[in-house]
Amino acid sequence: MRSLADDSELIAATLAGDEDAFALLYRRHLPVVLRWCLHQTGNAELAADLAAEVFAQALVSARRYNSEQGELLAWLLGIARNKLRESRRRGRIESGARKRLHFEALPLQDADIERVEELASLDEEVMRLVADLPEEQRLALLHRVVEERSYRQMASQLRCSEAVVRQRVSRGLKTLRAQVKER
Amino acid sequence: MTEHEDHDYFGQVERELRHAIRTGERLDSGRRPRFRGVATRPFGRLGFAFAGVTAASIVAAVVLFTVGLGADTQQAFAGWKPVPTRPAKGQRSAAEQSCRSTLSSLGQLEHRGASKVAIPKTHEAEALERLERVARSKVPPARRWKTVAVDTRGPYTLSLLFDGHRQAECFTGPSRSGHRFGTAGVDSYSRAPAPAAGEIGDFVGGVTTIGGAKGSYTFAVGRIGAGVRGVTLLLADGRQIVTTTAKGWYLAWWPGRSHATGAEVRTANGTRRVHPNFP
């Protein structure tokens, strides 16, 4: 199943032209990258701008990533750090990678700013709890909460009915809530 | 990102990324260049001068490669060398003065207020102003900065400084117009543990431009573990850059935008090639 693929497999698929693979990486790591950007800049708009540049640069440089040398997330945060440094030097968020890929100018709206806070607040501790959930619940939660897929899409991907998917998400959330309360 | 992907920013970013993959253009090739032979036996002393036959052969190789960079880049950094050189008389002190002055001016801007900072009048102006403010508010007074390592290549000086919490790199040298230029970048100090003995790690760096695209240069600053006697960076365009190593750090810079694809790390046991994930 694609969502079980590790980062290096997804990078390899991306290099073979699989856009879904990179989209999955993007969704998988966006919360942490965004949280880092938000922490560093203290500003949701800048964080969103910077995070977009980080993923554009990661795509440009995807062939340079070597999984034997470290985690993809560490590499992404290294890119983020360099981009932020250059942004500070120039007094504006770096956009070299996005220009290179011919990204269109993307205006941020109020809802996007809220989304930054939302994504960035996906707490690491909660993510660790998610990792400990039974496989079916974990996948369902990741699909739904992190990757924001619709129940219909999830049902198709997980090869089960929408009702079953909803049940797995519900059970996963219930377990999580119970674990958080215990702490 | 499906229910509201028609208007949300992150959904749009994803679509742009997908589009870039579909078109398949402008992505780095990732091909590792073939490098010329490099000695793998232990060296007695390397030091910053990097004298000897090995150095001479590397210099020769690099000179051949740099010719391919084009006249503009060459002119922008005339006198640049792929190996550290001895500083000319007064070069280090002039660089240090320039660096402290630049860092100090960043601090002064903080006190004057961000409204004095020239920023583009676009819809992003407010956000950019905040960035300036955040960046500059983190710059401590220049007097606290201590120079850790200095890399000189011809008339150019790259310095690494710390204040205990932050690190800064200053770059100074003569511009094409004959005046001196000075730039400084400040970043939070990485608290990552030092690399293991004989290893390198924690690379930071990036492409910076002075006076337009023709003035692009790339710098690299990274940490070294105990026992590392020298680090040579291997660039995608085939150049080999001998770095300056000091006090647990290596640093170097080179004209152009070529990125490092690997490094040769020299210890008492010899030289080995590594390929860290240089971001």
Description:
The complex is a heterodimer of chains A (183) and B (279). Chain A has 183 residues and is mostly helical. Chain A has 10 helices and no strands. In chain A, helix 3 crosses helix 6. The longest helix of chain A is centred in the first third of the chain and has 23 residues, at 19-41. Chain B has 279 residues and is an alpha+beta fold. Chain B contains 5 helices and 12 strands. Chain B has helices at residues 9-23, 53-67, 71-76, 91-112, 125-137; strands spanning 146-153, 156-162, 166-174, 180-188, 200-209, 216-224, 230-235, 240-242, 244-246, 249-255, 260-267, 270-274. In chain B, the strands form 3 sheets. Chain B has a 4-stranded antiparallel β-sheet, with helices on one face. In chain B, strand 9 and strand 10 form a beta hairpin. The longest helix of chain B is centred in the middle third of the chain and has 22 residues, at 91-112. The radius of gyration of chain B is 21 Å and the shape is globular. Chain B starts with 8 loop residues before the first helix and ends in a 5-residue tail after the last strand. The chains are: A mainly alpha (183), B alpha+beta (279). Chains A and B meet through helix 2, helix 3, helix 4, helix 5 and helix 6 of A and helix 1, helix 5, strand 4 and strand 5 of B.
The radius of gyration computed from the alpha-carbon positions of chain A, rounded to a whole number of angstroms, is: 17 Å
pLDDT averaged residue by residue of chain A: 80
Q: What is the strand content of chain B?
A: 25-35%
Largest sheet features of chain B: 4 strands, antiparallel
Element pattern of chain A in H and E: HHHHHHHHHH
Estimated structural class of chain A? mainly alpha
Query: Helicity level of chain A, as a percent range?
Result: over 70%
Oligomer: heterodimer
